[in-house]
Predict the 3D structure of the following.
Amino acid sequence: MLNNQQIRFCLDTMGEMFPDAHCELTHKNPFELVIAVALSAQCTDALVNKVTASLFEKYKTPEDYLAVSLEELQNDIRSIGLYRNKAKNIRNLCQMLIEDYGGILPRDRDELTKFPGVGRKTANVVVSVAFGIPAIAVDTHVERVSKRLGFCRWKDSVLEVEKTLMKKVPEEEWSATHHRMIFFGRYHCKAQNPQCEICPLLEVCREGKKRMKGKEKVGQ
């Protein structure tokens, strides 16, 4: 596990590497963002953006999604994985948003997780990106980077990873750290073939050191 000085080094270094890290899901308002994040489960942001480019032109409000059949909405997002279940969740989310919230997306994370298809990660993204409330959304990249570097333990659950990061990262840096960790995991510390050889965090990365030692043995 990293000590406080090492964690500060990691945070500062990722900040230098990706100073402009941001949410890459295209959206114009909180409602579009929650739809986009819900669609992004087990799917790349690039594919979601390709689909929402036309989706958000066709559907502007929760009422618009309910005005068409489930089959039509499924067809609109067919290129996205799990599209049948996601279309159903979107319609149920819109129904609940209209009936219980007057069509206005709530700013509270716990309220957001009541919506179909909206888990803790999605809710954290929405409150952070749409409403500027400090939050750390643990997606596959954040979880992988946190465990490889040693911010937390390998056996920790996603919720445990989030709670650990919230303790070790200053609250005012939660949102920025979330985006920087995503960029670091997406473009540098990839799931396959991480760039350990040129990584500025190698000196404190337990996983990177193991990988480099393994390559040295193979080369002998």
About this structure: The mean pLDDT is 94.
